[in-house]
């Protein structure tokens, strides 16, 4: 009941036409709105509107489309945009960083992982993987002229387009990004997700992937999972088999400790 009330209120007062606002100051002024010259859209309200289930199905797609349209860059979507150009005492430290650095308009990687998950929840595997791929240190590490960081570890953020060094990696080793990107990749792109009753199999693959394999340890057992995506649909499980037997739905029951199970997943056409 409380969730329903919150959802109704957020959609009544925080929807800005194409995105959700970031919040209100102590003086009652809205920020993260298209009415603002700077910081007119923030990434987190859009991703979390989807993750929480607050966004309606229609608004969920619209707000994530707004992220791509207004915040995306060649090296990933920014935390907010446009970057603030001068300090705002009502908003605090976020506006005191130089434009395109730290939280002021950078590609902040921890929230990007939440965006990847949100795109998967909408079944948009191509977009989810695109964000995952281009913010990876593997991808960024190939462009050391702009990246300036180790090509084997996540940074906290990349400088945004308002910086003098767009794409530069900063604060490597100092972020929760690695754990969250692992969850985004394994649990949502590959779609092998632990639940109380077993392993949920719900891949959201990019269309170019025709096959994927996952080794997943779960409650003392091992699952060797083969995912077949022959038509490039990327989502929807047409058939699920474990040890040669068909499983109804897409939830694998937990096996016993030390057991190894062979799983075949056939994606829908």
Number of helices: 8
Largest sheet: 5 strands, mixed
Side-by-side strand order of the widest sheet? 12-13-17-14-15
Count of extended strands = 17
Spatial gap, N to C terminus: 38 Å
Question: What's the shape?
Answer: globular
Radius of gyration: 20 Å
Which class do the helix and strand fractions yield?
A: alpha+beta
Describe the protein.
About 30% of the residues lie in helices and about 20% in strands. The chain has helices at about 1-15, 45-50, 55-70, 110-120, 125-135, 135-140, 145, 175-190; strands spanning about 25, 30, 40, 70-75, 75, 80, 105-110, 155-160, 170, 190-195, 200, 210-220, 220-230, 235-240, 245, 250, 260-265. The strands form six sheets. It has a five-stranded mixed beta sheet, with no helix packed on it. The chain has a three-stranded antiparallel beta sheet with strand order 7-8-9. The radius of gyration is 20 Å and the shape is globular. It starts with a helix and ends with a strand.
Observed structural traits:
alpha+beta, 17 strands, globular, about 270 residues
Secondary structure blueprint with pairings:
Elements: H1 2-13, E1 23-24, E2 30-31, E3 41-42, H2 43-52, H3 57-70, E4 72-73, E5 76-77, E6 80-81, E7 107-108, H4 109-121, H5 125-134, H6 137-140, H7 144-147, E8 157-158, E9 169-170, H8 177-189, E10 192-195, E11 198-201, E12 211-218, E13 221-228, E14 237-242, E15 245-246, E16 251-252, E17 260-267
Parallel strand pairs: 13-17
Antiparallel strand pairs: 1-2, 3-6, 4-5, 7-8, 8-9, 10-11, 11-16, 12-13, 14-15, 14-17
Helix pairs in contact: 2-3, 2-4, 4-5, 4-8
């Amino acid at each position: 009941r409380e969730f329903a009330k919150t959802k109704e209120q957020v959609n009544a007062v925080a929807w800005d036409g194409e995105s959700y606002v970031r919040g209100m100051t102590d003086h009652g002024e809205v920020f993260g709105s298209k009415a603002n010259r700077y910081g007119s859209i923030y990434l987190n309200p859009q991703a979390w509107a989807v993750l929480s289930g607050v966004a309606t199905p229609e608004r969920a797609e619209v707000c994530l489309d707004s992220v791509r349209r207004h915040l995306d860059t060649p090296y990933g979507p920014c935390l907010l945009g446009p970057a603030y150009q001068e300090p705002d005492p009502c908003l605090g430290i976020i506006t005191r960083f130089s434009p395109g650095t730290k939280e002021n308009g950078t590609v902040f990687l921890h929230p990007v992982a939440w965006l990847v998950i949100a795109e998967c929840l909408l079944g948009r595997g191509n977009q989810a993987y695109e964000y995952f791929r281009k913010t990876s240190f593997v991808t960024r590490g190939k462009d050391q002229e702009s990246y300036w960081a180790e090509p084997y570890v996540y940074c906290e953020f990349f400088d945004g387009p308002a910086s003098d060094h767009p794409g530069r990696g900063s604060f490597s080793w100092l972020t929760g990004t690695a754990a969250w990107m692992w969850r985004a990749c394994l649990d949502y792109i590959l779609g092998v997700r632990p639940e109380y009753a077993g392993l949920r199999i719900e891949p959201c693959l990019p269309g170019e992937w025709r096959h994927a394999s996952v080794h997943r340890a779960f409650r003392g057992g091992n699952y060797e999972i083969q995912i077949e995506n022959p038509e490039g649909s990327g989502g929807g499980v047409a058939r699920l088999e474990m040890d040669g037997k068909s499983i109804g739905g897409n939830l694998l029951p937990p096996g016993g400790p030390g057991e190894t199970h062979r799983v075949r997943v056939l994606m829908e056409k």
